[in-house]
Amino acid sequence: MTDTTMTPPAVRGRERTRALLLEAASEVFAEVGLDAASVEAICERAGFTRGAFYSNFESKEELMLALTTQIAEQKMALVTQRARELQEAGVQLAPSELVERMLDVAIDRRAGILLTSEIRTRALRDPRLAETYLAWQAGIVERIGVVVAELGRVYGLKPRIPEPEFARVIMQTWEDTAATAHMEGLDFAAMCALVNERTGRLAAALIDPA
Fold first, then answer.
1. Which of 19, 22, 33, 18 is nearest to 116 (CA)?
2. Deepest of 70, 93, 168, 184, by most Cβ within 10 A of its Cβ?
């Protein structure tokens, strides 16, 4: 945890401005899309001037890259915390239940799903964003793979494919199912149930008892 008493006020102010701009951008991107979102709209939502924006980000694209990283870190923190809680509880779970309990804490609501889909679509056209998107996706898959391996040792389970690949397949199914559920108009509870069902079924098919 950062000791804010040791951080100069100017630095804390800059960090707060940056955080508010990222929060505003997340909302505006989810509402109107990345292309339609203007720097002016983001600044207005955050309560800052264009000068404040450009003192933190060189461009809207750089802000998008920062937001992409933030989203990944938030999801990873939630999954890692849940994995730690499951280990400490020592409850025996089937593979499908284990995966469901790990991932359900990080299922996105509508705004998050829209934002992730928009970033992925933009990455298809923007090589720089694509490079960053793939890099943080690989990073989060690697980290979840480590969590999967540790849980496998605790629960006596072994994936039929390497842990990082197992994590990648589960993550892709999780994200795609959430996006499809949103397009189908399911409410959040129904979406969670569908995501859990599909990822759990996949996990059961890909894991053998050790």
1. 33
2. 168
- Count each helix (H run) and each strand (E run) in the chain, helices first: 9, 2
122, 34 Cβ separation under 8 angstroms: yes
Radius of gyration of the chain (CA): 19
The arithmetic mean of pLDDT across residues 36-59, rounded, is 93
- Please state which CATH number belongs to domain 1-57: 1.10.10.60
Contact 130/123 with Cβ under 8 angstroms?
Answer: yes
Stretch (H or E) spanning 157: strand 157-159
Question: What SS3 state is found at 208?
Answer: strand
Range 31-59 average pLDDT: 91
Spatial distance between the Cα atoms of 192 and 205, rounded to a whole number of angstroms:
20
- What 3-state class would DSSP assign to 159? strand
Quick one: tokens of 61? 């694209």
Model confidence at 105: pLDDT above 80: no
Among the ranges given (8-12, 25-29, 198-202), the one the predictor scored with the smallest mean pLDDT: 8-12
pLDDT above 70: percentage of residues in the chain: 94
